[in-house]
Amino acid sequence: MTATIQQIDAEQFAQQWREWRTQHEARIGDSHGFLAVTSINWLGETPQRFEDAPGEWSTDATGVHVTLADGEEIVVNGQPVHRSYDFGVIPERGGVTVGWRDGEKDVAVEVARRGGYDIVRPRHPDAPLVTVYHGTPAYEPDPGWAVPGRYVPFEAPRPTEVGGAIDRIRHVYDAPGRIEFEIGGRPLALTVFANEHGPGYLTLFTDETSGVTTWPASRSLFLGVPADDGAVVVDFNRATNLPCAYTDLATCPLPPAENKLPVAVEAGEQIPHGRHPHV
Question: What is the pLDDT of residue 278?
Answer without folding.
Answer: 56
